[in-house]
């Protein structure tokens, strides 16, 4: 791992190059693909900034919904990511098996799913999230 430039700085340099140098020189299909690349870089930057907080929140929500699941690990990185993956797999199985059919568990499930969706939109498309919140 290098100290400088950081991953964030590298992404910003690529984004600046695409926006400043390449976008104005292209049109049609190539321009569209440059815009897609710029958007993908923004998503990666947002995910890097928000990932730890969002994983922690999702793990906490899963631990609350799935009683037999161990408490979410405090640490960052692969343990937390694996916990969320296993928790989501288990949540899907429980949904299929009718564990959230009653109103109270269903309401808790909906709160968790909405919070997780909002976190994912905050990284992937913050404008849609802002629009959703103003339309409530």
Question: Could you provide a short overview of the structure?
Answer:
The protein is an all-alpha fold.
What does it look like?
- This protein has 136 residues and is mostly helical.
- It has one domain (7-135).
- The chain is 77% helix and 0% strand.
- It is built from 5 helices and no strands.
- The protein has helices at 7-22, 28-65, 78-96, 103-124, 126-135.
- The protein is elongated.
- The mean pLDDT is 90.
Q: Topology, please?
A:
Blueprint: H1 7-22, H2 28-65, H3 78-96, H4 103-124, H5 126-135
Helix pairs in contact: 1-2, 2-3, 2-4, 4-5
Radius of gyration: 19 Å
Mean pLDDT over the residues: 90
| Beta-strand content estimate | under 5%
Structural class by sheet pairing and helices: mainly alpha
